[in-house]
Amino acid sequence: MQSNLVDFIQVLRSHDIRVSPAETLDAVGVTTTLGYADRNLLRDGLAMTLAKTPAEEAIFLQCFDRFFQQDLADFSSEETPEKQDESIDTGQENNATEQSENTSTNQTMALELAAANDPSLKALLQTPLMENLLNNNRHELTLAINAAAQSVDLQKIQMFTQKGQFTRRILDAMGEEQIRDAVIELERAESPTLAVLQRYRDILRQQVRDYVEREYLLHAEGKTQQFMDDILSRTRLNNIEHMYLHKVHELIRKMAKKLASRHSQKRRRLKRGQLNMAKTLRKGIPNDGVMFKTFWRQTKKEKPQILAICDVSGSVAAYSKFLLMFLYSLQDILPKVRSFAFSSHLGEVSTYFDDYPVEKAIELVNWKYGGATDYGSSLIDFSSIALDDINSNTTVIILGDARNNNGDPKLDVLQSIYQRAKQVIWLNPESRRTWGSGDSEMLRYQSACHFSAECNNLKQLERIVDQLLKSTR
Q: Which pTM was predicted?
């Protein structure tokens, strides 16, 4: 049962519920204390241990109900799976159970009579699988399917194309091959009991297919989403089709949440430095002035700031959109962010993000500043707006392809920014092999940057923002 718990935790992780090793040990302790007899009690105990937010609790409850499903497989159907879609007259439903038992008894007797003259069929009827099928022992058959699924590692299923493959593996692990061989022999002998054995074989196959389908939806759903997220995170941002944009926005929120969790600063009380005498004396008053507790002054550091300069011309607009979306998704833990957009001229657009949602703000920015690119005049505009605000605590991020349409790059302006700032980071969506080709001024601009990198997908952007957060702490 503990292995089942570990498999369940893997399902939760595939559905974006973070479960640490310590929480896994806590869950083991909960199951040891509560046991598995009371399903509702176990569900509530594990939910308190593993679900940390209302959203995670909703996902947990859904996964729990699907993983610990108590329904037994039904092997009592009268008809083959292809015929089960036909409706049954209402008047016949009252006698369905009695007719099923009589038919099952007659069919069992027919097989036993045929087995009297057929040693291979007699051996088949003595196998545990066939005995359970004939007696409709749903509990034993369900346990057999579960054990076979575990032996073939069904929980590793990832793609819908694997469902048939795992169905065959489970059937082989259960011993269905003996039934299959017996059906072939009865078909060759033109035995009248052929249809009876085929019926049991088809019902078994259908139940295993249904079981694999449920497990696929449980185990592969989260893995498929993770697979899709990985593909989108490595795809060039300008190649992502419009139909996937909502998935990209969700992926950015996931990345931002992960980085926020990693870099959020915890408050800690200093134990060294300059003594805060006033607070120490005040806290000692209840103790007759005895200073049992000492408090220390904290040095107030000047907060760093980030200036993001984004090229929103046609060739780079998609990349700038996602960079701005990423930065403003981290506004709770990032230092102060000021945003600037340019094509032929540059302007500050920070107020757009204060007044509108991120997506709407980016749309307005692209509409106002889109057009042909002129890096030289844009750098001059930036210098006149923000150069005096740049100091040793300022990080300047420039996102653009550095293609200046053969104009004056104004390298001296970027060098003055470089001399004032803590760091100048240039993110170029083009491949490094194309830097400096044609009208690209990237190689010249690179000399006035502390760091430059190719950045054209979310995975690269996440890594760079991660390093940025480390440097600004």
A: 0.59
